[in-house]
Design brief:
Order of helices and strands: HEEHEEEEEEH
CATH architecture: Roll
Number of strands: 8
Strand content: 25-35%
Structural class: alpha+beta
Radius of gyration: 16 Å
Shape: globular
Largest sheet: 4 strands, mixed
Low-confidence stretches: none
Number of helices: 3
CATH topology: Ubiquitin-like (UB roll)
Number of domains: 1
Mean pLDDT: 92
CATH class: Alpha Beta
Amino acid sequence: MNDNNTPLPWLEAVRWDAQGLVPVIAQEQGSKDVLMFAWMNREALQKTAELGRAVYFSRSRNKLWFKGEASGHVQVVHEIRLDCDQDVVLLSVTQTGHEPGIACHTGRHSCFFQRLDGAQWRVTEPVLKDPESIYK
């Protein structure tokens, strides 16, 4: 719904799960790196489209989460895509707030910094900024 409580057809096309959420992948526009995975509810997706910046839904806090509200690492959204089953959203973003962009709360560029190597996970990306200095 928008401010006039009129249904928005593009929001209605999304196949929301039983909790009213849809999984979202944030991909860096330039490098095509997958930065993170999160969730959105209708309000978060509508605000993302309206503001041109990523707004997610925090399941642990049960509220909207404006990416960068605590860290300053905002995601500027260039494009929003919906997959063929209409149940996964892909954001094309520019990660701001640090060069190179930090998307992960661990201070790394991407949340996907561990790779399976044989029978163990290996860290493949360095910490770009100490998380203690990001979240004060």
